[in-house]
């Protein structure tokens, strides 16, 4: 299909379509949970349209499909947003039966202003705050997830998937190549889909859980990396379903197994010089480096409701289960919530280990960057570096979603960075979701309270 607009597509999308006729374009936008919403249109129609409409109510929906009363003064009239394509995000949908592209869109209101509670706009807002100071934020996300047996009955516990050997995936086989080989066919499809979409995988490793894998991505622009994580979640799910299993990004899908994190590595470059502001003369650690760490320590409790957005998220923060329970920081110490990995001065970075893989990647990265930004602006010192096993200390983060929302709702400084209107909508929607959860009686309650209390 030799249309003018296809000639300007990213290289991977052009290569995917070479010698083929494009059938369909999926016009998509991530909602608050990070689910792709939108429309599929014939390629010929997409070539003629500059935008399309969706109601703003897609951002008021809970994960269950119910609604938060977040519409504001206009009331719940479901007014249309104007969604414009970002053609730099055009990429293949290689699992479809015909030749299809996906394109992420940005949301604007009728005055051409960015919709403030659209997650991609929230991240763009935070990145722009850095750029206004002459800084360029750089991130590298790590994605952990489980491959599990198909599960169509919510009452049944989630089980590990069957491996290539015909045996269930085994736990506590971290970094085992044999364990990775067990999922070979799924991983082959993940690589093939990623290549078709133009994504570079830095590596795939077996993590500590049964059927738990980790994919690392190359560092780069925060919005571009969030786009990739958003796309990767769909890509991985599609690859898994081809092989009679599910990919899940739940923070804690299986009891007594480690949870799944989205660790976020941060560095900040000086826009003028291109140098890492965390490294000074002769490679020394700068004040800015310490201020960034202090920002994470001081503001991450307020942001936890964004980077740990569901009731299940808090089941991950268990002592001695590969997830942090506090905001200590340390060099090359995986027990701390904030880790400084081994690196040379040019690649000095700070790793936030608190974010769960269940978070919306745009909001998770935005919240983490927002905490670091506040630290850079406040210029406070962090606590002393923690030496030893941080699990021996006390937890200093909220333990349940309700508590995390209480802290988030009082965090005016964080709201100013993320956007006050986003904070309002997010809080209302998450409260509605939490209230839904509190109406559910769990098997634990029936087992232990029914006849005993």
UniProtKB/TrEMBL annotation:
Gene3D superfamilies to which the protein is assigned, alphabetical: Glutamine synthetase, N-terminal domain (3.10.20.70), Glutamine synthetase/guanido kinase, catalytic domain (3.30.590.10)
Example GO BP: polyamine catabolic process
Domain (GS catalytic): residue spans on this chain: 119-453
Alphabetized UniProt keyword annotations: Ligase, Magnesium
Keyword Magnesium carried by entry: yes
Cofactor: Mg(2+)
GO molecular function, one term: glutamine synthetase activity
Superkingdom: Bacteria
The family this protein is said to belong to: Belongs to the glutamine synthetase family.
Protein name stated in the entry: L-glutamine synthetase
Gene source species: Sulfitobacter delicatus
